[in-house]
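Section 3.1 - Work completed
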Amino acid sequence: MTQPTPSFDTEDTAALQAWFQARTGLSSLRVAICDFNGCFRGKRLPVPEASAALSGGVRMPLTLAAQDIWGRDIAGSGLLAAGDADGIAHPTGRGPFEMAWLGSPTALVPLWLFSEDGTPSPFDPRHALNRVLSRAASMGLTPVVGTELEFHLLDPEALCPAPPRSPTTGRRLIADGIHALDELDGFEAFFDDLYRAAEVAGIPAAAAIAEGSPGQFEVTLRHGADALKAADDAVYLKWLIRGTARRHGLAATFMAKPYYTAAGNGFHVHASLLDADGRNLFDDRDPQGAARLGHAVAGALAAMPEMTLVLAPHLNSYRRLQEGAHAPTHANWARENRFAAVRIPGGDATARRVEYRVAGADANPYLVIAGVLGSMLSGMEDETAPPAALSPGGETAQGAPLAVRWSDAIKAFRGSAAVARVFDPAFVAMFADAKAQELARFEARMSEFELRSYLEVV
């Protein structure tokens, strides 16, 4: 039986070497960093070279973390002007992850990127989150984070997105099967393999449910007092879902809105903060806890309109943010209201937390969690009070509006003082440039619909 993957210390490669030696049938190795868009970029290494390469780090261009969605360098980048220099990628302390869906035994070792002098690369998304966690530590706080990740299974042979056929009936899914056990159980073999892979990888996958669109599902990741691991888990779970889907003759997508008329895919973040004694600062049985919860909510809402670019980073992201849906369009909050941007779930007050519901599943988990926690910390530093909560069943179009166009989100992100309190200025400039480059390429292409509308009409 496969044993759970151990955790590795970045500076100690003995465990890595022992792992390789214990798996004599391993055919190759993947080493990769995570880029702006949550894509893995790296190298394939022969196994005999793996231990030696990883003991001193793997040389990779610093630009590798700062790619657009097509894997192109960002035009005008200072990194390119300086000669496109290498950085050194070191193991993160997680992995290796076995890639069971490939034809031969293979594993991935996740890395993060440092400059030649050993300083963290400001463009590596994992470092962006670690920067926020250092800020929390300086305040004597430990974030507790859990996530919920939605995705669609698709028919891989369809030319356009199409729900898969049920493995039990052979019929294509058509129902909006929210919490439908029959739909969930129809893909039992897929979920069995996914949960086995998650257990081996040390990913704390909890409940799975069918969601509100044909072939849509959600997997919850249990909370823990290690926000960097929580982000790792979400990134690696997306990778495992895609790979496991391929193994079962399916495709998986985390596009925010693969079907225009059906529910989109969200990435919900649950967060609280512990003090030095391990007490939840948001325990609102105490007026002081209620005040701190309010400060965190206020900070999250204040930064949200200008933080939209990391929550909705793609052209398709803005199709998901629709008024009256479970994907909010305004910066507001409420208790036990899933139409609010920030929801305070009920239950035991010792577990009181913020649920941040704006991000799409297409967003980079490192950047989303950094944005959520960083803006909450700003509210606590400023001790600001939140606006009035939404009333039950009331109008949801309250609070500052979020960007409804990608171009507006790019502009707001680039010039935001609130964003500058969370992310490194070099990251802010490069990320905004990357998204502007992507937008320009989309705008330069003519769709078939555009041609049909105008060609012989005007």
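Second construct:
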Amino acid sequence: MDTPRSHETAEPTTRLETDIPSYRGDTLSAVTPSLAAALGVPGYEDLLDAGRVRGAAFLLVDGLGTRLLARHAHLAPTLAALAQRGSQLRSGFPATTATSLASLGTGLPAGGHGIVGMSFTADGFGDTEPCPALEALSWCAHTPEGSVDLRGQAPPESVQPNATVFERAAADGVEVSRVVPGFHHGSGLTRALLRGPGRFVAADAPDELVPGMLEALRVPGRALVYGYHGDLDAAGHVFGPGSEEWIEELVRVEALVSDLASDLPADSVLAVVADHGMVHTGEHRIDLDNSPELLRGVSRLSGEARVRHVHTEPGAAPEVLAAWREVLGERAYVVERERAIAEGWYGAVSDRNRGRLGDVIAAARGDWTLLRPEAEPKQTSMIGHHGSWTADEQLVPLLLLRPE
């Protein structure tokens, strides 16, 4: 792992590797509002031409980026053919599961729902100030003493108070079902972004996912169904995207989608989407925990290996910004919070969520990672990462399927 070396360039390259999305129908935040509109739920617009239906389902295949699918099209002919007939969305920034799930759950970009990374500060809750960085997938803070459950100190419904699409659909009489691994039920992340009346159906194995989603679609009346498949993402993190283990999971996803497509009920639509893609990282690793020049004036770090929120001591933001730009040079985009907001990285940012963004934000370029081996050993050990602005991370397929 590299300890950073100083670079001559003080200013970052201004052009990102992919364009900043408009967040008006070109990102994941358009998916569930479009499906709700297709079901006739008031207040939503069908931005993706889902049509008018009785039942709408969406399957989230964690980690299935458009670029990855194209490189392995011969192993997933059904998915590849659907992708050619379908369209392409942007994950939105950052391209990470917690943020993307929140955008799917609420129909808002990160600046609106406030889940601005895999981990972020959630100050203003409970008696402890400041709140430790909240790791959204587990809703815990990881401290030297161990993990601390933050569901009491930072209630998910308060951290993310916007109504979910599920809540609004159920209020209009739609039967809502979530077909997900059992541990999702009642988790902090589920309470924050997937909450609402309706059923939770445990699907702890891929062979439980298809029958669970199809049964939920066949209920009388209107139905909105969410299904989640996470094994492809897990294989990519541990073994790398494109590895033998990853390819085995892609073949399983191909079979799963084929089974769903072949038995869809009449008057229904299925959207197959991904939350992000992934990059294979190698030796381009920067050790933040052992880089004193990057930690000087820093109060807290959050985010993930590809995007870091850098919170600074009072008055230290300009010096921290200059140091991160000088040291990281062309290996990352390093901008101040106000610039990221002005350029629209996170969509429209509400006042309540501004402080969750770092005073300085560093987004890794290429296949670089900004690691914390002492604070985040599990994440540091991973081969596949995502979150930043490359096309491999940002571009995701939107496959709309209807009964033949």
